[in-house]
């Protein structure tokens, strides 16, 4: 198959000026990499940039999914409020803190506290959990609890939260509005701006392969991540969930997800990019593949195994019954096979302004 000359010119341009790629170049890289020779060249460029900007350490972030309650009704997600067949749980403060302490003992440098949009967890209650974890473990703390007010974000930041993950999900405003009823892309961008102003290390990202999504809109996703200058970006494939309006839709393709991930590495070379669990779910080698074309982070679950089957964003999620110890040794072998090492310490963004604190 013929690779358009524009692809090679785009790749050269992107390699010369990573982090400063215009939208046409991003789109040309995505389109051209449908060809296997072009794709391999793109993946190699992404792997080299990952090595140059982020090094060979693979950072592990321990996820604690502390509540599967959600007031939203995103069309793609199994936690949507309308999914009344799903039993709901909410971990207690003590359970969350104890889990974080266990993660610290296991050697994690970061815990990610994630939930659906659950107003029962009000800002002061979550702030107290953040504060306790910080005081008792010194771990880096990432929050991922959705759209909240600037005041809530500020309270958590003061309590000791370092990072916040808020995926923009899709940069297509019409698709966003349709798939996330009652919310807008503009509102999401406002929340991301608040997080930025408050000094969080900001993570965003998008789903790949949503029904109605085009390559052009995926190019917008990557251009947006570059514009937001994110410290992290999660790029994962869409996986249809049977109890959602998108039950009959096709899943996102592994190959397309990897191409978007690789182009993202060229667009935000200094960002932490996870090899997502969703990618590991649709392809047994998905995370290894991601780690070879730009990714440098893995996020194993450290929460109690009894709750995990209930955090059913999408079906078939891997590592539902594995204790954190098992995933750690599995990931240790994976990383070693790739000729890389497990990251030590908090694994902050390498940007100078986030390297001020004592990382010891
Ligand atoms: N497939 C893949 N990812 C999904 N998410 C939600 N539903 C799905 C799905 N069906 C992702 C979204 C969200 C995160 C909690 O999970 O990106 O940010
Ligand atoms: Fe709730 Fe997030 Fe799922 Fe939407 S994607 S239904 S906000 S948990
Ligand atoms: Fe959980 Fe491999 S990462 S078993």
| Low-confidence segments | none
Named CATH topology: TIM Barrel
Indicate the CATH class.
Answer: Alpha Beta
SS strand fraction: 5-15%
The major beta sheet can be summarized as:
6 strands, parallel
Which overall shape is indicated by the principal axes computed on the Cα atoms? globular
Following the backbone from N to C, one meets helices and strands in this order, namely: HHHEEHEHEHEHHEHEHHHEHE
* Derived structural class: alpha/beta
Please state the CA-atom Rg, rounded to the nearest Å.
19 Å
- Distinct ligand kinds: 5'-deoxyadenosine, iron/sulfur cluster, FE2/S2 (inorganic) cluster
Helix content: 40-55%
Q: Please indicate the count of domains.
A: 1
Q: How many distinct helices?
A: 13
Explain this structure.
The protein has helices spanning 5-16, 23-32, 36-54, 93-105, 123-137, 150-159, 173-179, 185-197, 215-228, 254-267, 277-282, 286-291, 324-337; strands at 57-60, 62-67, 110-115, 140-144, 163-165, 201-208, 232-237, 297-298, 341-342. The longest helix is centred in the N-terminal third of the chain and has 19 residues, at 36-54. The protein is globular. The protein has one domain: TIM Barrel (Alpha-Beta Barrel), CATH 3.20.20. α2 (23-32) packs across α9 and α4 (93-105) runs parallel beside α5. The protein is an alpha/beta fold. The protein has 13 helices and nine strands. The mean pLDDT is 97.
């Amino acid at each position: 198959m013929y690779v358009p000359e524009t692809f090679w010119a785009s790749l050269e341009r992107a390699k010369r000026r990573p982090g400063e790629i215009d939208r046409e170049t991003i789109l040309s890289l995505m389109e051209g990499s449908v060809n296997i020779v072009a794709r391999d060249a793109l993946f190699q460029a992404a792997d080299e940039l990952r090595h140059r900007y982020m090094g060979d350490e693979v950072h592990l972030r321990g996820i604690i999914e502390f509540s599967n309650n959600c007031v939203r009704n995103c069309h793609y997600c199994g936690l949507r409020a309308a999914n009344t067949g799903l039993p709901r749980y909410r971990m207690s403060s003590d359970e969350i803190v104890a889990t974080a302490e266990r993660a610290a003992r296991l050697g994690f440098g970061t815990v990610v506290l994630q939930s659906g949009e659950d107003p029962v967890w009000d800002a002061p209650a979550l702030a107290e959990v953040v504060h306790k974890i910080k005081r008792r473990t010194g771990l880096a703390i990432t929050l991922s609890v959705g759209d909240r007010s600037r005041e809530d974000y500020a309270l958590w930041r003061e309590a000791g939260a370092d990072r916040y993950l808020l995926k923009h999900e899709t940069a297509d405003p019409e698709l966003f509005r349709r798939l996330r009823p009652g919310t807008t892309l503009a509102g999401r961008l406002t929340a991301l701006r608040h997080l930025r102003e408050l000094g969080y290390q900001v993570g965003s990202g998008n789903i790949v392969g949503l029904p109605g999504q085009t390559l052009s809109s995926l190019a917008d996703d990557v251009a947006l991540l570059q514009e937001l200058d994110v410290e992290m970006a999660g790029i994962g494939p869409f996986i249809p969930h049977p109890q959602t309006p998108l039950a009959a839709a096709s899943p996102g393709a592994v190959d397309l997800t990897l191409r978007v991930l690789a182009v993202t590495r060229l667009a935000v070379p200094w960002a932490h990019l996870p090899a997502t669990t969703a990618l590991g779910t649709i392809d047994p080698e998905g995370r290894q593949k991601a780690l070879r074309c730009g990714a440098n982070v893995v996020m194993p679950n450290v929460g109690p195994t009894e709750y995990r089957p209930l955090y059913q964003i999408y079906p078939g999620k891997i590592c539902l019954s594995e204790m954190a110890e098992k995933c750690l040794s599995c990931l240790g072998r994976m990383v070693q096979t790739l000729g890389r090492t497990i990251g030590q310490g908090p694994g902050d963004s390498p940007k100078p302004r986030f390297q001020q604190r004592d990382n010891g």
